[in-house]
Amino acid sequence: MPPEKTRKHSHFLSLPDLAARPAGGAVVWANDELFAERENLIKPRPAEFRPATFGHKGQVYDGWETRRRRDLHPDAHDAAIVRLGVPGIVRGVVVDTAWFTGNYPPTISVEGAFVAGYPSVDELVEGTDWTTLVDRSGVNGDTHNPFAVDSSRRWSHVRLSIYPDGGVARFRVHGEGLLDPDFAEGMTIDLAALENGGRITACSNMFYSSPNNLLLPGNAKTMGDGWETSRRRDTGNDWVQVHLAGRGTLRVAELDTSYFLGNAPGVGRLSGRDGDGDWFEIMPAAELRPDTRHRFLIADDRPVTEARLDVYPDGGMARVRLFGTLTDDGLQQIRDDWAASA
């Protein structure tokens, strides 16, 4: 089993997966992918397995699988490099070996690097200094193997190494996105967006799907790409809380119920607060329609650092966008955070 200390710090699993394809992640390189392609590592859905589905190269696996190595050197290994959807602070990773039982790697390691811009594969493989995030550690087959990461630095790329070879179904990189201050000054941005550093901090219910989906870039493609609660049988309501990219003033809220037809909320309401202050209403209760992208103007000029969406009584939402501008001190805090994570 993975070391005991990694299992005690599973709280990072509630943070968004910065490597996932919907978040903008990409597997830019692998030294070998003979049996199963590297891009499977970052699919958002859990790995599937269909027995007796043999292709020309053998059983088809929903993951990344390399050929058997014949190099017996103890450091011989295979590796894949993932570009994160947004630079961020990594709090933990999951090396998921689902369905790999006799062909999983017995040990793994994970490294990180920050490279500005859009480096080529050659730059990443040959010219980049990598920092260890997870020391070489044992993993089990057909298992979610979580590892906490203790680092306050920001990373743009993560390298997964497997020793000596084998298959990994999914690779999750959980953390907090950081907004590059060069793209924030004087601009109206989505202060809730994952790619700008927004993140979910609490919600009342996530029975069907994660609220982290609300902050992903792009449009949802199915109902499963959003946040959906179970059906309420009491007099309460469901809600989700968002920590914004920085202290700012909101101008427009977009509440998107696309693909939610018979299970969209009937009403939505937005509140905000500044730091640890009291919550106050920033958008009064408004009727919501199924399968509709709603846009609402916000007239309240009070700065906020957090927002809360209440839906009545329950239901599903595809995306939440909160467009606004950073305050001067909000922008300075983003500059400070960016510099501190270098």
Automatic annotation (TrEMBL):
Q: Which InterPro entries match?
A: Allantoicase, Allantoicase_dom, Galactose-bd-like_sf
Q: Which residues form the Allantoicase domain?
A: 24-176, 197-326
Instruction: Tell me the pathway.
Output: Nitrogen metabolism; (S)-allantoin degradation; (S)-ureidoglycolate from allantoate (aminidohydrolase route): step 1/1
- Top EC group: hydrolase
Source superkingdom: Bacteria
GO biological-process terms attached to the record: allantoin catabolic process; purine nucleobase metabolic process
Which keywords does UniProt give here?
Answer: Hydrolase, Purine metabolism
Instruction: State any single GO MF term.
Output: allantoicase activity
What EC number(s) does its UniProt record assign?
A: 3.5.3.4
Record-linked Gene3D superfamilies:
Galactose-binding domain-like
Q: Which reaction does it catalyse?
A: allantoate + H2O = (S)-ureidoglycolate + urea
Q: Which family does it belong to?
A: Belongs to the allantoicase family.
| This protein's name | Probable allantoicase
Species this chain originates from = Mycobacterium yunnanensis
Gene that this sequence comes from: alc
